[in-house]
Amino acid sequence: MLSCKTIMNDLVCPLCGESHIKPWWQDKYREYLRCQNCQLVFVPKVWHLSNEEEKACYDLHENSGDDSGYRRFLSRMFDPITALVRPPAIGLEFGCGPGPVLAEMFAEAGFTMKVFDIYYANNPDVIDPEITGESYDFITTTEVVEHLSEPNQVLERLLKLLAPGGMLGIMTKLVMDQEAFKTWHYIRDRTHISFFSKETFEWFAQQHNCQVEFVGADVILLRKQLS
What we know:
Layout: H1 4-9, E1 21-26, E2 31-35, E3 41-42, H2 51-58, H3 68-84, E4 90-94, H4 101-108, E5 112-116, H5 129-132, E6 136-142, H6 151-161, E7 162-171, H7 178-182, E8 194-195, H8 198-207, E9 210-215, E10 219-224
């Protein structure tokens, strides 16, 4: 059963804005709701961590450019992007964390890169097209969208930053079914508050006139239309 706070404060999906929301699951830490329109599963705001608590969790991450295993992990995003986009294209790593390793990999391959992270590289100029005066040929968000409290605002902004035909690469684990969700390791991380499924990305792509491609288990490519 949903808490009173949830009923009062979380009747609208943070992705599509619809109010047709149903309970999905509840554990000892928080509740999860599912939108019946776009199929996003999300945690009500009453259970979100504060900015300070969230950053404290991120500060524990130890991702180094010298770690070959971490580079192999990021290659799941790097390889499909470089198969479709050639240098000297301009890219943005959105949500780069304290170590922008993926941006380094693209730069080493001859791409021009910018980085943004609300906690570690908070330079709003690079996500403001009026200031940058340019569009990006590709944008990557690796293990980012599951942390977003307002995913629609962020994803729409990133699409606006892309040049026509540009590519938005998203890496996130996908919701399967409810039984799998109950024991899913992804929900144990309390900074994870938005959970996408294949159907959610297909809905988003249709709404924004994008082509969508699923690469492997956790990489989604959204290509902006040429016009």
